[in-house]
From TrEMBL:
UniProt keyword terms in alphabetical order: Isoprene biosynthesis, Magnesium, Metal-binding, Transferase
Gene Ontology MF terms in the entry: metal ion binding; prenyltransferase activity
Record bears the keyword Coiled coil: no
Source organism of the structure: Streptomyces phaeofaciens
GO terms under biological process: isoprenoid biosynthetic process
Keyword set includes Transferase: yes
Cofactor dependence: Mg(2+)
CDD domains for the chain: Trans_IPPS_HT
The protein's name in its UniProt record: Polyprenyl synthetase
Similarity comment text for this entry: Belongs to the FPP/GGPP synthase family.
Pfam families for this protein: polyprenyl_synt
């Protein structure tokens, strides 16, 4: 679904405005929190923990969840909406929680151009690994609690506050389930089915990164998302699958100089991603043995990853993955197009375009 030059430019300017404004709001939030968070005066660990949560949060990327919150409200009205900033703060704090715990689970040294919270604590406590681990878990827990508290403290009407808090609580629970089944997917010899891969994508990311922002924005604007529950869920799931397919594709078939990440990380980590599952389903004999020997080997060389990549290309895996992305993007865009009789066309156009951005992005 291509943009005209004029409409595309206006849309990009609007989205960049959401990002700029939110970054200022987020910084102000942490400035206020540093002076209002109730903690014992003797503690040095609490301010340090808050500093690490702040640093990771403010190193954020495209703020797509923030954009989704604002554009969901624009489906209903073009006027300013009370509570949108609080909804955006909540969703980004939940994202911070997820990143902190993901980096601990994956033993990742870096995140967003800086050290992960786990590795910052490991450097701080080189001789106390349990302290570093415990403080990392608690930093993630603090971000989660703050994501709910910001909604409880919102100036939005009480029924809206309560409904938004329920959305975020459910989104957090779904995400935890997704993290559990994500780990379960990678245990054992079986190649995960397409249904399993879709479910992991849905629970681990789509429900909090897409569905929850949609629901929060609609609630803040006075709409009742429960009236449109099934179609919102279908849309979020489809776009989430597009995004995860693209992430998994870029991990092996992307350009490392563009993505900023080494190629083959999922293979070294033993992740049975969409790409890995497609590879294992396509190969046999010595080629499969090579893929399986690389899977889960952290010392796997760049040459081996290049060989696995070549096997995938030879068997048409990149084409299959791109075809699946386009299929899900088409379905998601059609789902959004059906909103036009009910909601504002300008905002609907954004949601029609969003799945194609997932398919086209290079990093």
């Amino acid at each position: 679904m291509p943009d005209t030059p004029d409409s595309g430019e206006r849309l990009r300017a609007r989205l960049a405005g959401h990002e700029r404004r939110f970054n200022a709001v987020f910084e102000e939030y942490f400035d206020t929190l540093e002076s209002t968070l109730d903690a014992p005066s003797f503690s040095g660990f609490v301010p340090e923990c808050l500093r690490l949560v702040r640093e990771l949060s403010l190193r954020g990327g495209k703020r797509i969840r923030v954009v989704l919150v604002h554009e969901a409200a624009r489906l209903v009205t073009g006027e300013p909406v009370e509570g949108l900033d609080d909804a955006a703060l909540s969703i980004e704090l939940l994202q911070t929680h997820g990143l902190i715990h993901d980096d601990l689970i994956d033993d990742s040294p870096g995140r967003r151009g800086g050290p992960s919270t786990y590795y910052a604590y490991r450097e701080r406590f080189p001789d106390r690994p349990r302290t570093a681990l415990g403080l990392t878990v608690l930093a993630g827990d603090l971000a989660l609690a703050l994501s709910l508290r910001v909604l409880l403290d919102s100036k939005a009407p009480l029924p809206v506050r309560q409904a938004m808090t329920e959305v975020q609580t459910r989104a957090a629970a779904d995400t935890f389930v997704g993290q559990i089944v994500d780990l379960e997917r990678d245990v054992g010899p079986a190649v995960p089915t397409e249904d399993v891969l879709h479910s992991v994508s849905d629970y681990k990311s789509a429900r909090y990164s897409l569905l929850a922002p949609l629901q929060l924005g609609l609630l803040a604007a006075g709409e009742q998302p429960a009236r449109h529950e099934q179609e919102l869920r279908r849309y979020a799931r489809l776009v989430g699958i597009c995004g995860q397919l693209r992430d998994d594709y870029l991990d092996l078939f992307g350009d490392a100089t563009v993505t900023g990440k080494p190629t083959g990380t999922d293979i070294r980590d033993g992740k049975r991603s969409y790409t890995v599952a497609a590879l294992l389903s396509a190969v046999s004999g010595p080629e499969r043995a090579l893929v399986e020997s690389a899977l889960g080997d952290p010392s796997c060389t760049a040459d081996t990853i290049a060989a696995v990549r070549e096997i995938g290309v030879r068997h048409g895996v990149p084409d299959r993955l791109r075809s699946a992305m386009r299929h899900h993007a088409e379905r998601a865009a059609a789902e959004a197009a059906a909103w036009r009789p009910r909601w504002r066309g300008e905002a609907v156009a954004f949601f029609e375009r969003l799945p194609w951005w997932s398919v086209e992005r290079s990093h």
